[in-house]
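Please check both lines for our workbook:

___
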Amino acid sequence: MGEGERSGVTVASKGGWGIIKIMNAKVEKAVEQIQSLTAEEREEFLEWLAEDEFSRLDDWDQEIERDSQPGGRLEVFLKKARKDIAEGRTQPLDEVLDNS
């Protein structure tokens, strides 16, 4: 292991502050394997990872859609937002941003 590393613990220095990241054995092994990849292999891996993460956005979008439906977890917040809009207690976002 490299300097500042112990099994399961990686210590990185940023701006003089020590940052401690706890990694389980699987993650630590994956990091070591990724670091050993050639530039071409790393690029291929990163492309796969980006596609995998992007595909998971669909899952997240579906969850937001479900939560936004009547009876969903966001219902109470949506009701409040709609009431605030109806009662004129909101401002258009562009006005808020222009005033900051």
Notes: The helical segments are 25-35, 39-68, 75-86, 93-98. The radius of gyration is 23 Å. The beta strands are 5-6, 9-14, 17-22.
